[in-house]
Fold this protein.
Amino acid sequence: MNKRTFIKSIALVTAGISAYGLTSNLKASDRIGRVVRLNGEFTLPELPYAYNALEPYIDAQTMELHHSKHHASYTRNFNTAVQELGLTGKSAPEILSEISKYPKSIRNNGGGYLNHNLFWNMLAPANGKMPEGALLAALKENFGSVDNFKKEFSTAAGTLFGSGWVWLIAADGRLKITSTSNQDSPLMDIAEEKGHPLLCIDVWEHAYYLKYQNRRTEYIDAFWNVVNWDFVSQLLEQDFV
Ligand code: MN3
């Protein structure tokens, strides 16, 4: 699938969601656009907030290590693998959409690169906001209520075996909760459930172990305080590539 086709397919997903009465005048892509390659290299994006901005829910040391070590490593290794394979001129979402063609080095590091780019933007300093507008309507329609959505998402995050991610995705005009192992993504052609990511949580131990040790459910409960619902709303309204 080439980039144009891929974008079109995402646009169709978004079009399906537009049954919820959405308008498309917001600019999620302005922020996530950092995934676009600069000077031929995928760059480690700066966080849109300080390392300590998510305290006390996610601690500064975890954020600093997660971003400046883990995410930096995925970024570096992704660039190395991309150069070795000569995948010049392709965006990260485009590479993920045809991941079955590439070796594990691309799958693991490309997934790690893009997943974290999304995750940082899906978080924000706690502001007490809740889903509203079209997002609220979509969550109610698909999950009954916001509380029930959070319960189902938290259960999926709490029970995912091993390292991976839990996602809220838009697919076929519906919202779904899905999970992926390791650094796989719903944007990958090999994903069991493919779709347009709206929200994700990293449940690798490196995301919470310093503060919460083995208490993953406490990390998941804390996560809800720092979800950037405005950004989730923007992703619902437009593709992010
Ligand atoms: Mn991580």
